[in-house]
Write the structure tokens for this entry.
Amino acid sequence: MRVGLTGGLGAGKSTVSALLAEHGAVVIDADAIAREVVRAGTPGFDAVVQRFGADIVGPDGELDRARLAEIVFADDHARDALNGIVHPLVGERSRQLMTTVPDDAIVVYDVPLLVENNGAGGFDVVVVVEADLATRLRRLEARGLDEPRARARMAAQASDEQRRAVADEVVHNDGSRETLAEEVGALWGRLSQRERKR
């Protein structure tokens, strides 16, 4: 079974994917793949540098992701250009990883931009992680992202309503980790039941 897991910035999607992995899910992390396909020495890295210039390369020779984020979250055309480079590479690498997974596995594809890229149709189940705005802003501030930048990045993503419109399951992540773990455990039970019926 292929499960698409998504949620807005700061909703806690990575925590949910980690909890699902503890239950036995095979997690494929689109963000991790997106970093992998633009590492120094890859065609993706070369294409990004060619498009955005050498000043987006940090002292370590890798992309300066913070600098690149400042550029693309302030300019829709720049963001579209970056996505046009990275998304096909992520898709190709994801397909390679999918071929190594057993047929009876529950594969959770952790993808932030599932709704924005109209990807919901590619999954048997879509799970959306939600948290209220204040909680999300607090979490992002703890990661070093101030409120104006956090709000700008959120505005570039789909809304909660748009994500809910494609969701088969919604996980609420406003409370404690223990409460979230219970909710994810119940979700895993429903996913496992679906898989057994397939």
Q: What stands out?
A: Strands lie at 2-7, 26-29, 107-110, 125-130, 169-172. DSSP finds nine helices and five strands in the chain. The longest helix spans residues 76-98. The chain has a mean pLDDT of 93.
